[in-house]
Amino acid sequence: MSVPLSDHAKFYREHQREIDSAIRGVLRSGRFDTGPEVPAFESEFADWVGASHAIGVGSGTAALISALLALEVGSGDEVITVANNDIAGASSIRFVDADIVWVDIARDTKCMDTGACEAAITPRTRAIIAVDMYGHPAEMTELRRIADRHGLRLIEDACIAVGAEIQGRRVGSFADVTCFSFAPGKILSAYGGAGACTVEDPELAERIRMLSAYGQNPNTRRSRQNDLEFLFESDGLNTRLDEIQAAILRVKLQLLEENLRVRRDQASVYTERLRGLVDTPIERPNYRHAWRNYTIESSRRDEISDHLIAQGIGCAMLYAPPLHLQPVNSGLEYATGSLPETERSGERLLCLPIGPHLTESQVDSVVHAVQSALQ
Ligand SMILES: *Cc1c(COP(=O)(O)O)cnc(C)c1O
Fold first, then answer.
1. What ligand 1 atom has the least distance to the C-alpha of 85?
2. Ligand 1 mean position, distance from CA 257 (Å)
3. Ligand 1 centre from 143 Cα, in Å?
4. Tell me, what's the pLDDT at 279?
5. Hey, how many other C-beta atoms are within 10 angstroms of the C-beta on 109?
6. Dihedral pair phi/psi, residue 12, rounded to 5°
7. What is the CB < 6 Å shell around ligand 1?
């Protein structure tokens, strides 16, 4: 493949010394679950996004499930969310036994239509999960107002938007809980499953920590009478961030700003050269896109993707078909046509390669390939 969507091996070759040393440090310490790397990463990551607390968990999916459990969303509750999302955006809600309510997206940002969200609120609504789609932040300020007006919990799925900003502030503290994924395909990526929740409320932070780690309260792990006994206060998951992933993430966090800068530069090259030929993604005033994906839209999408693949250029139709049209959700009876903007986008979008693994000439060859596909 001449222009791959991602190239983890290249990153490793370029940073082998730091990565090897981080992993070796954990191996030598012999501490794989309760060592120093996870708390150090949590504190560095919370600082980086400007949140009061970060709790490392095993994946973005685990972050969403832990958030819903900690906010006590459950049976009989409705959760309003969007359907152009990772499958975890539906399975996490069903996992806690709540009901999914999908609303449509705004055409420009691909994020939740805030008017549609407010219109979908019923007496059973308990929470909103907004998604920062492709790296563009959802309208978190307006969604906070809506959630407060109706007494709802607000979760932000920022799994693909680390480093995105609203009015100069990084995402991570706009919602009650912000969920991040550090899966290998994300902007800040580990070498396996990893994720985090960020929160402002210290009690909520403790609850997420307890629920993601066996239901064990970190402050009263052991009984007072006998410090060889472990205490468990609730049912919980075993979905913690592990020491090796945390050590790797600490190395990569140092490189995150440069990673975001390269993505931003590549996105502006694409936009400058493809504007007019296809629909190029936007960045609303006062919002900063993290550019996890560079997503074009065209009625001739399939011609473009066929041409790119023939030229050895990686491309993807991410988060399409939307969740309401996935076989696993057919029982929810959202017919084709029920979310017109979501469906329109799903039929037209194509993600182009973007990221620090690409050279300028590779970006150039993607531009030429899109241009020649449409000639
Ligand atoms: C990747 C992703 C998730 C799930 O994260 P995992 O770490 O794969 O469990 C959730 N939401 C969005 C938007 C994602 O892209």
1. 13
2. 21
3. 21
4. 98
5. 21
6. -65, -45
7. 59-61, 85-86, 88-89, 131, 157, 159-160, 181, 183, 195
Round to whole Å and give the CA distance between 375 and 275.
15
Instruction: Give the rounded percent of residues in the chain with a pLDDT score beyond 90.
Output: 94
pLDDT band of residue 333 (cuts 50, 70, 90) is confident
For 268, residues 6+ apart whose C-beta sits below 8 A from its C-beta are none
On the question of pLDDT at 82 being above 80, the answer is yes
**CA max distance for the chain:** 78
**In angstroms, what is the span from residue 45 Cα to ligand 1's centroid?**
18
Calculate how far, in angstroms, residue 173's C-alpha sits from the geometric centre of ligand 1.
19
**Which residue's entry shows tokens 């531009």?**
367
Q: What is the mean pLDDT of residues 92-100?
A: 98
From atom 6 of ligand 1, which residue's Cα is the shortest distance away?
A: 60
240 dihedral zone (left: phi>0; alpha: psi -120 to 50; beta): beta
Instruction: Tell how far the Cα of 88 is from the centroid of ligand 1, in angstroms.
Output: 6
Provide the 3-class DSSP secondary structure of residue 255: coil
Closest CA to 108 of 82, 146, 141, 136: 136
Residue among 66, 92, 159 whose CB has most ligand 1 atoms within 8 A, to mutate: 159
Atom 3 in ligand 1: which residue has the minimum CA distance?
A: 60
DSSP 278-298: BBPP---TTEE---S-EEEE-
Which numbered atom of ligand 1 lies nearest the CA of 64? 10
Residue recorded with tokens 């959630």: 147
Residue bearing the CA closest to ligand 1, atom 5: 60
The full DSSP string for 188-205 is S--SS--EEEEES-HHHH
Q: Closest by alpha carbon to 230, among 240, 238, 221?
A: 221
Structure-token match 């140092």, residue found: 254
CA 314 to centroid of ligand 1, rounded, Å: 20
Q: Which position has the token pair 């993290």?
A: 290
Give yes or no for a contact between 57 and 197, defined as CB atoms under 8 angstroms apart.
Answer: yes
**144 within 8 A of 114, measured Cβ to Cβ:** no
Given phi > 0 = left and psi -120 to 50 = alpha, else beta, which region is 35? beta
Digit-coded pLDDT (tens) for 284-311: 999 999 999 999 999 999 999 999 999 9
